[in-house]
Structure prediction request, 329 residues.
Amino acid sequence: MQTDIKELNEKIRLESEFVDLIRLEMDKVIVGQKYMVERLLIGLLSNGHILLEGVPGLAKTLAINSLSNIIKAKFSRIQFTPDLLPADLIGTMVYSQKTEEFKVKKGPIFANFVLADEINRSPAKVQSALLEAMQERQVTIGQDTFKLEEPFLVMATQNPIEQEGTYPLPEAQVDRFMLKVVITYPKKEEEKMILRNNINNTFASTTPILKPEDIIKARGIVREVYLDEKIENYITDIVFATRFPKEYGLESLASMIAYGGSPRASISMALASKAYAFIKRRGYVIPEDIRAVAHDVLRHRIGLTYEAEAENITTEDIINEVLNKVEVP
Prediction:
């Protein structure tokens, strides 16, 4: 097995060279936000969708738009509003007087990269139309079913500061997002740089360096990253500790957790850690990779009780406790 790992490591080191090129291109247009860019790459390489939470003006739209440009892929942005309809998202049947028959008019969901801006501003009907497309990778309009283009990545954003006129995403729907990433303000030096670029109007632009087919090929290689049985046990222990904290010596958390991570949490953690190892140009997953992605995978999959909210305990605190308690292989 040792020689296999060596070969695999070498193969992944060569195959993952494009990651550095993507980062260089992204650095041209985005100041800071390295964490967000890295999470976008994890989602892209492991075929998962991302829910981003952050205040306005943190380059969320610019990030996904730039990434789609680098990969020469189709990008569409949908602004979610309270009056949005599922047809505005997936498309509808339009009657043509010329041919006297109905034609399918495809909606903005037919793209490789879809930015669902402020997803919590739209009612459940629209959210479920988007989430069905994310899960099934297909859309039904009238009698016809259409496959969505690959790669297909949805990045939905949520504004945490406004609660008026918003429709919170139901837990079962949030579970379909592989990662929930919370992004914060840039550092002082970064903000000065953003300020200068805007004042001097010195905006660089990205160059397309890859094709969508390259990403599909890379996804196949990411799945080859070696995941040892000890690491599999570590993942399941972390997820089970969120469901049955008492069994892991976390009695204090039992009254704080309403429900723990779903089986999707285990799958997402395994795939995200493989993609993380690939980005770090390694052919095998180590416990540090699991710890690096654990917060983003579990953040939206743990339900808090009223008791936890009364004591100001957050999901972050619970994940930290679990990671500190569960034995590292």
Q: What stands out?
A: The first strand starts at residue 50 and ends at 53.
